[in-house]
Amino acid sequence: MELAALMQELKCSICQDFFRTPVTLPCGHSFCHECIQLTWRRQESSTPFCPECRETFPMNLKLNNNSKMGNMVERLTSQPTQTEVSKDICSYCVGKPNTDVRKICRVCEAFLCDIHLKSHCKTPDHVLMDPITSLHRRKCNVHQKSLEYSCLVDCTYICPSCIIFGEHRQHAVTLVTNISEQQRDDLKCVVDQLTLMEKKMQKISQQARRHRKYTKAKSVSRNNKVKKMFSEIRTQLKMVELQVIGEITRQNKEDADRVSNLIKKLNQRKSVISQKIAGIEGLRNNSDPMAIQENKSRELNSATASLCDITDLQGLKGLDDVLVMVNLQSALHRFQNEVTKIQQENGLWGHVASHRLMDISKFAGKSISEGLFNAFRLDPGERQHQSFRLHQVVGSNAMSSGRHYWEVEIDDLQCWGLGVSYDRIITDDESLLGFNSYSWCLYKPMSGDVHAAHNCEEPLVPMDSPVAGIGVYLDYEEGRISFFQLSSSIRLLHTFSTTFQNPLHAVYYVAVDNEQK
């Protein structure tokens, strides 16, 4: 046991290992050269001091190696010690050096194997420890007695002699067992908290695994829906492409047919003219003066009639870019609606706020603002072209340049009108769309045919029935406003050509008795 205590003295109090290149400070305490240098570098104080007794030293203190202590450490650590042997030999197993030691009795300072551990006294006075525990650390350095008490003032372990004779005589002390009980309670609280946290972690881990499984399944399902959705969108987009290309192809075929018919007619006329030329030349070469005189008038009249019947290229229209553009815009409009429908069917649609034409039959009074439109009521009174009450709606967005296209669903409305106007239509009393010099429209009375109206002129517009929708095209710079019928094929209904002087607004009107959609 004394050898074990000696070996404990040969250990550095900083690294708790045997001295490596030991140095001794002026206060008498020894440390590893590397440990004390590292400790001083980490100290907050600018003046170095001893880690054990706190004695301060000058900054330029020279550390000298303690070679004797170093040699002693080297000699003692180069051979087995009693402490090392005792870890493998039971104190009661005489002649059996290979018996494994399981516990150490702190009171008896005996090493116990499994056999003698059972028979050893297990009263509270005998405290068993693991064999890796050092008995030297459990004894007082001054009195070499067991550390059974704890000084509450200095927070250190002491022996009974320290209380009676030592520096802790008037300090408050308590048994180490009392402190250990309190510490056990504290440790139990910590264990309880950690156990609760462990259960929570386990629960969260289970929830995370379920979430991962659910998310993976949902991702697979959503991927399939997205693939299906975009496949359907590509199909719809292909239909848009086919419709526009089909319109271009149709116009090209019609123009090619017109050119072929023109060429055929020109060849026929050319053949007739060639015959006329041959007849006139034959008459010129006739040697009979009387024959020339008799046939001259007839040949000249026939030739003059042929000259007046020459066909030119004025009947060839070429490619109608506006009609192509209207087909494109109409197809894209339907494409947008189909995309929204596809999104809804696949659960990938969110409502996008937009302004729309409200039920204007519910508006009473004048100059009612609703979103992008201003609605007002109009009572034409005794005007012959309209003898019933109308509601007109004027778009608040002005169009002063560029090209614009929009569509209006007519469905089964009995009386309707749509077109463009200057904003003067809002301020002028009893100004009906199309029946003044500053508005252009397409309209249908309660019972009658469709007309185009501007400045009280109302040419009839033939239209297929039923009418599902009307497309409106505006080219401000060209001064063109065109109306198209929307059905399986798009057909131009009427075009106004003029020079616009002011910004234009979209205008709509319906009769009060119409049921709004």
Structure description:
- The protein is α+β, with helices and mostly antiparallel strands and 517 residues long.
- Among the domains are: 1-79, 2-Layer Sandwich (Herpes Virus-1); 208-315, no CATH class; 360-511, SPRY domain (Jelly Rolls).
- It contains ten helices and 19 strands.
- It has a seven-stranded antiparallel sheet. The chain has a four-stranded antiparallel sheet with strand order 12-16-17-18, with helices on one face. The chain has a three-stranded antiparallel sheet with strand order 4-3-5.
- Helix 7 (176-284) packs antiparallel against helix 9.
- It is rod-shaped, with a radius of gyration of 56 Å.
How are the SSEs ordered, and which strands pair?
Elements: H1 2-9, E1 22-24, E2 30-32, H2 33-42, H3 67-77, H4 82-86, E3 103-105, E4 110-112, H5 114-119, E5 128-129, E6 149-151, E7 156-158, H6 160-164, E8 173-175, H7 176-284, H8 289-307, H9 321-345, E9 368-370, E10 373-378, E11 390-395, E12 403-409, E13 416-421, H10 424-427, E14 439-444, E15 451-454, E16 469-475, E17 480-486, E18 491-497, E19 505-511
Antiparallel strand pairs: 1-2, 3-4, 3-5, 6-7, 6-8, 9-10, 10-11, 11-19, 12-16, 13-14, 13-19, 14-15, 16-17, 17-18
Helix pairs in contact: 7-8, 7-9
